Amino acid sequence: MAKEIITQIRIQATPLKIWSVFTEFAQYPHWNPFIKALDGNVRVGKKIRVHIQPPDSGSMVFKPKVLVYEENKKLSWIGRLLLPGIFDGEHAFELIDNGDGTTTFVQSEIFKGLLVPLFQKTLDNNTRRGFEQMNLKLKEMCENESKSA
């Protein structure tokens, strides 16, 4: 069983600007409503520590493996619950340059595994809302910084 969540938002800023805010992981506790902390060496093949808290849900800490780190373009990782195939989540953040001074920020995750059907409602509601809240806050951070610069 697989479940995919895709959210996106148009931000009035360049990919370079958004990337600089997005990858300032030490600042997440101060602004990010969904990913409360992200620690470790964020490089391909490395494991990082991620603390998430979807709206109206308990928090969770997991240690995904970084799959893609393409500066100003994409970051993705895969996290697993216990063993592969039980509950796997491949999370991605993409920045698409619209060529007009704006960027589309896409946050997505593909969930696979035996337990996915048990979490369908939580994924549809809480996780999606967490993505959307983070996207909005990132937009606000980038656009406000651009105005004050």
What's the short story on this structure?
This is Polyketide cyclase/dehydrase. This protein is of the alpha+beta class.
Descriptive keywords:
8 strands, 28% helix, Alpha-D-Glucose-1,6-Bisphosphate, Chain A, domain 4, 149 residues, single chain
Characterize the biggest β-sheet: 5 strands, antiparallel
Q: For the record, what CATH class applies?
A: Alpha Beta
Number of helices: 3
Second CATH tier, the architecture: 2-Layer Sandwich
Give the H and E element order: EHHEEEEEEEH
Helix content: 25-40%
Shape: globular
What is the spatial order of strands in the main beta sheet?
1-8-7-6-5
Organism: Sphingobacterium spiritivorum ATCC 33300
Protein name: Polyketide cyclase/dehydrase
Pfam families: Polyketide_cyc2 (PF10604)
InterPro entries: Polyketide_cyclase/dehydratase (IPR019587), START-like_dom_sf (IPR023393)
Can you describe this structure?
This protein has a 5-stranded antiparallel beta sheet with strand order 1-8-7-6-5, with helices on one face. The protein has 3 helices and 8 strands; from the N terminus they run βααβββββββα. It is globular, with a radius of gyration of 15 Å. The chain has 149 residues and is an alpha+beta fold. It is 28% helix and 37% strand. The chain has one domain (1-143): Alpha-D-Glucose-1,6-Bisphosphate, Chain A, domain 4 (2-Layer Sandwich). A hairpin with a 7-residue loop joins β6 and β7 (88-97). 24% of the residues are buried.
